[in-house]
Amino acid sequence: MTRQPTQRERWTHTLSFALAMFAAYLLVPVSFVAALMASSAVACLYLVALAWRRRTLMRDVGRSEPAITESKPDAEGTSTRPSFRREFPHAFVY
């Protein structure tokens, strides 16, 4: 014959079950918020790294020609102006 649990044991089991259910209920939104915060932090770090790289490239680029050049067509009528990529190398992040 099995022993019947006492009133105190029943309350202890009930409260521990309720606590476990409440923890499981909170697990989903808390983990979602934690994942959202982590992904936001990674996105911010990526943007900071891009800005830092752009700043470094802009500082290190020493242009020998002016930013705005005159466009002079050659004998066939095509422009000899340098391409935008060569004229503004700091605008492109490779």
Describe the structure.
- This protein has a domain at 29-63 and 75-94.
- It is mostly helical and 94 residues long.
- The chain has helices spanning 7-60, 84-87.
Please outline what is shown here.
By secondary structure, the chain is an all-alpha fold. It has helices spanning 7-60, 84-87.
Low-confidence stretches: none
Number of helices: 2
Portion of residues in beta strands equals under 5%
Structural class: mainly alpha
Q: What Rg is obtained from the alpha carbons, in whole angstroms?
A: 33 Å
The residue-averaged pLDDT reads 78
Describe the structure using short key phrases.
94 residues, mainly alpha, 2 helices, 62% helix, rod-shaped
Helix and strand topology:
Blueprint (H helix, E strand, L loop, with lengths): L6 H54 L23 H4 L7
